[in-house]
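Can't paste images in this forum, so I'm doing it all in text. The chain is below; anyone willing to post the predicted structure tokens underneath?
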Amino acid sequence: MSDQTIIYCDESGNSGANYLDCEQPLYVLAGWAVAKDAVVNASVLVERIRQVFCPQRKELKAAAFLNNEQGKTRAAEFIRELGSAGCVPLIVVAEKRYVVTGKIVETFLDPAFNKKLHNGFTTDILTKRELANTFLTRLPPEVIDHFAQAYRNPSSEAFLSSVNDIATAAKSLVNPELAACIEGCLPEIRTIAESEDPRMSAIGKISQSVNAPALMAFFLLVQNLARLGAIEPLKVVHDEQSVFEKDMQEIFRLHREAKDFVVEIPNSYVPYSSFSHIPKFELARSVDCQMIQAADVLAGTVNHLMKLPLAGHKPSPGDMELAGLTLPSFFLTEPPIGWLIASENLQNELLKTFILPSVGQEQVVVGKTSQSHPVSNDTAMFPVVGEKRDQTKSTRQTYRWDLPVYGILGEKSGALMLVNAGNFELEGTTYGGVLPLFTSREKAIALLSMWPTDELTEPQGVMEFGPKELPHLVNLLKQASEAVKILVIDPGPNEEDKKFLALEGVIAGMGGMLSRIERLFSSGFDKVMIQRHDICGIQAMTMLTSKGDYGALLPPNGRIYWGETRHLALEALIAGEGLRSP
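Text version of the structure:
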């Protein structure tokens, strides 16, 4: 669709600033992009459907279809007919409690008001999503509710009480480091309350509601489609909104009149930008606009479907048919036409309930939607301390070794040495060449000495890879992965010493680890994650790892000792290095 286009949208599940409405856990803003020349025919289609299915109603509503299987079948036929008429769905869904926990992050971990953090955290979307998910799954519901109530009526007293609740719960249910970061906002709690007062916001009362981020997301979907040349928007038309109409117009005006900009969002297919390609935004009465009525059917249908997994209800055959027509919007990325602002749990349930059964799969593996990329345990910034993970249920191969590690490199090419190991089988696949790495320099030299010089393609040397050399090692591994798929740790005559690992998984794991380290220092979290200790004049260092345990070492390249708590890791280091306890 590259014709001049009008986008019609409507909402479902609107409860304004009330995030705690149990009957409305989701907010949906959905609509149809329609070529200007197709609007009349599409509108005639909507009116015909209204006259056939609900002639007693002045306008078409989703509720007319969703009460029984026959109605759901009719709704599916209607959506198909709209698609055949050239209408393209655009859908934004926001899970309200997830938005609340995201607000906790944005309110109490804002570098402007929390001196424990650096400005780098402002754009660290990956960690922010991780924390929102962690708060949603680990904080008691009453703690989340307490914050939502305080946010609705911001005051220094209400926010102070909420911060204390959150920090206390985080200390015992997540880790003490996260609690310390949250408490970093306490000196600025009065300023935070003043900044969250809707009277201080450029966009007014809508700033406190889920409507604001959903409307922004919808505009950005339209802007991105236009920027890519998929559509040429003439205007976006929203159903009339008595409470937030002026605020919605202000959101549009601020971004429409802003100097054109595009900012890429990490782990997202849709950038944050001005609305330079959207000439006009207006609100209209749905009773006078058939395409807004069609948007109501779409929004209400999606809301109905996504409530099912949240409530633990099994979808009917009619629900599955509707899901197949609407929910794939969240997984289409070229270009994106859906935006899911939701927790990892809801994404998993969405896949398990609707998507995987439709393609004959049972195992749930969360993939990258247009707006969300779940965080693996290996890259979590704030893991749950002391949580025992059942490794038997994990499909991922894990292995931990101490730094430094050693590799054999060509003196001319600088590439890692590859070894033809003959054909061997690993997890049902036959491999030939492998990439060796070693836990000691001696083991690397011993293997290298096995080769006569005239059999080597170039002179080889042993290189040590400590923490500072990890980025270089990752690049070398990526280069080697073009030729081999298996990494072997400490190859040698003793079969028990060998560890065979999938090279692709090692690269991904190390890349995630480096990402965590980079984010750790750019955000300022290193000030609470990493602590230095004086042990009778000897400097030691401890750190919370991504797996939820602690490591202790004598910097810069000492052996790492592990413990379930910071104290136990330090005790292990003292015992292992023969130091005296302070």
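The longest strand covers residues 26-35. Residues 398 and 501 are 8 Å apart (CA to CA).
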